[in-house]
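Hello support,

Our group uses your service weekly, and this is the first time we've seen a run hang past the timeout. The protein is Phosphoribosylaminoimidazole-succinocarboxamide synthase. I'm not sure whether the cause is the sequence or the server load. Input pasted verbatim:
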Amino acid sequence: MEKLEMLYEGKAKKVYKTDNKDLYVVEYKDDATAFDGAKKGKISGKGVVNNKISSVIFTLIEKKGVPTHFVKYLSETEQLVKAVEIVPLEVIIRNVAAGSISKRLGIEEGTKLSETVLEFCYKNDDFHDPIINEYHARVMGLASTEELEKIKEYTFKINEILVEFFKEKGLNLIDFKVEFGRHNGEIILADEISPDTCRLWDMETNEKMDKDRFRRDLGKVEETYREVLSRIE
Ligand code: C5P
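Update from on-call engineer: The timeout came from a worker crash unrelated to the input. Re-ran successfully.
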């Protein structure tokens, strides 16, 4: 397998074509952004750590029956994935209120939600990833009813898998964001799952073990990402 030209550069990753049109190489970067790109920085070693964390998590999710783009870990910062067409939706699950739901709806951060909340956002920087519902997703042609059903089914299943997994590691999964893609007409989990895309609180101390350390200038950012990896490896 040969790595060819770069196809896309995102905020935290680069995607490369390969000599197999069905496969891409994803390279994880140290760059970090927050607040819709208003805050920019680097978290030293993040690319290496997130590549490992995401590889462990995608392997687990695949094993538990949700199809994913993950093929294999290639190097410290690279993984081989199935080529997908990304569905332009950010799918967010919330178990406990934090971040934007607290700001938007006034639910105090740390409040356990009486049921799991799923949100869709339209993945579009020009519009600042606005929250939308399934009607918007359909009329904008982002996904079909069948695809939205699959996406919801997979996302709730991923939540069950990850709540249990992180609990065993002493971590409370507060919320997370996932993205899906189309591969041979099927919906599969794509993108990454890491402390960049989840909120994880230590079960004993409630200490934040995720990107909120960068967003909110809480310090010990690099150490925290490494600590999450050491707990799940
Ligand atoms: O900011 P908000 O509270 O809506 O984020 C909910 C969850 O989704 C958090 O875990 C956050 O890290 C993740 N997220 C993300 N990428 C975005 C927006 C949110 O990974 N663009």
